[in-house]
């Protein structure tokens, strides 16, 4: 597998783990807590594999940016958290940054 696939797996693991943090109720609920721990273990393992071929700054920017966007969307639907205009603008800017890095930056290549 290549770095992009590892990074995608790391992002999915992080989004799942972060989405279950609230349900874990401070790690007092066993099942959601197990999902959080396993999710973050998967995340960091695959992120470490991704960083073998992706520069750390670029990988982290993509990982955190996509994670923020996806977790915000999940929180909206799963927990009814509202996103006001400044939040939507900020998320749009994050998305724009991730797109700029992926489409135009030469920093993502070694």
From TrEMBL:
Keywords: Cell membrane, Membrane, Transmembrane, Transmembrane helix, Transport. One of its GO terms (molecular function) is choline transmembrane transporter activity. GO terms for biological process: glycine betaine transport; xenobiotic detoxification by transmembrane export across the plasma membrane. It is a multi-pass membrane protein. The chain crosses the membrane at residues 27-48, 60-79, 85-104. Pfam families: Multi_Drug_Res. One of its GO terms (cellular component) is plasma membrane. It is found in: Cell membrane. Belongs to the drug/metabolite transporter (DMT) superfamily. Small multidrug resistance (SMR) (TC 2.A.7.1) family. This is Multidrug transporter. The lineage of its organism: Bacteria, Pseudomonadati, Pseudomonadota, Alphaproteobacteria, Hyphomicrobiales.
């Amino acid at each position: 597998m290549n770095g992009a696939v590892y990074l995608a797996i790391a992002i999915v693991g992080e989004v799942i783990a972060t989405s279950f943090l609230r349900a874990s109720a401070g790690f007092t609920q066993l099942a959601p807590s197990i999902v959080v721990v396993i999710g973050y273990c998967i995340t960091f393992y695959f992120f470490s594999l991704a960083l073998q071929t992706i520069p750390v700054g670029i990988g982290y920017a993509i990982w955190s940016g996509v994670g923020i966007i996806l977790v915000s969307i999940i929180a909206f639907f799963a927990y009814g958290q509202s996103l006001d205009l400044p939040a939507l603008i900020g998320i749009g800017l994050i998305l724009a940054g991730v797109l700029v890095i992926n489409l135009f930056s030469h920093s993502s290549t070694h």
